[in-house]
Design goal:
Blueprint: E1 6-10, E2 14-15, E3 27-31, H1 32-42, E4 55-57, E5 69-72, E6 75-82, H2 88-92, H3 96-100, E7 108-112, E8 116-119, E9 124-126
Parallel strand pairs: 3-4
Antiparallel strand pairs: 1-2, 1-8, 3-7, 5-6, 5-9, 6-7
Length: 129
């Protein structure tokens, strides 16, 4: 996973240039706070890129967020479900897969409802209506 300062979202497709365009897992998200809990559980400092999510979000709990609309900058993402951790996680750190199983620790996946550019530092919040 390569960190970038910004990316283009394509409505109904996901992140331009991403491998999972057009499917149900168009955009994957990871909560920074949940990641910190996983690190504490494992007693290890791990780069969030280890989880291989597209977006690291701060200040939001993704648990049980299915069908909610997330506003990222000027774009909307519909959360479709939980991203379940695979055995690849244990290749990065022993016990990581199990540690990510609780409370949607592996994050969530979403579909892009809008096209537009998103960038590091964009506001991220739940839509209210």
């Amino acid at each position: 996973m390569d960190s970038v300062a910004g990316a283009s979202l394509v409505e109904g497709s996901g992140l331009a240039g991403n491998a999972n365009q057009g499917g149900r897992r168009q955009v994957t998200l990871l909560s920074a706070e949940r990641w910190a809990q996983v690190e504490a559980r494992l007693g290890a400092e791990l780069d969030p890129a280890t989880r291989r999510a597209n977006l690291l979000v701060f200040g939001l709990d993704l648990e049980e967020s299915g069908d909610r609309i997330l506003l990222v900058g000027g774009c909307r993402l519909r959360i479709l479900g939980e991203t379940r951790p695979c055995d690849l996680m244990d290749r990065f750190h022993p016990g990581l897969q199990e540690a990510l199983r609780d409370h949607w620790g592996g994050g969530a996946y979403a579909e892009a409802l809008d096209s537009g550019t998103i960038s590091i530092g964009d506001s991220v919040d739940w839509a209210t209506a």
